[in-house]
Amino acid sequence: METDPTKKLDYISAARFVDNISAVGQVRKYMNDTKKAMKFHRDQLQKLKKSGAPKNVLDKEKKRIKDLRSGYSMAQQYEFASKMGTFEGNWNTAKDLFVDGNLLS
Fold it and tell me: Beta strand pairing status for 102-103 and 98-99?
């Protein structure tokens, strides 16, 4: 068990980084799967419309697409927040490298 407080915080930070990278990968997979599912259900909806399916069947497909779109939107927001966090980290690192507009060497 690490006792140095600085190293302990570094280990915690590294663990969070690994967790975040894993989560971002899972979100991207979810987005790809959801995109495919939405396309499948849109195609199904078109086929059902052409075949003259009852309104309740069409409504079920529309609801499924709406639910998928909602989940996809949440995943996009998570991905955007992750990118903003990366940008913020890069910005803070760049700020730490400069003092009064001069690059530290």
Answer: antiparallel
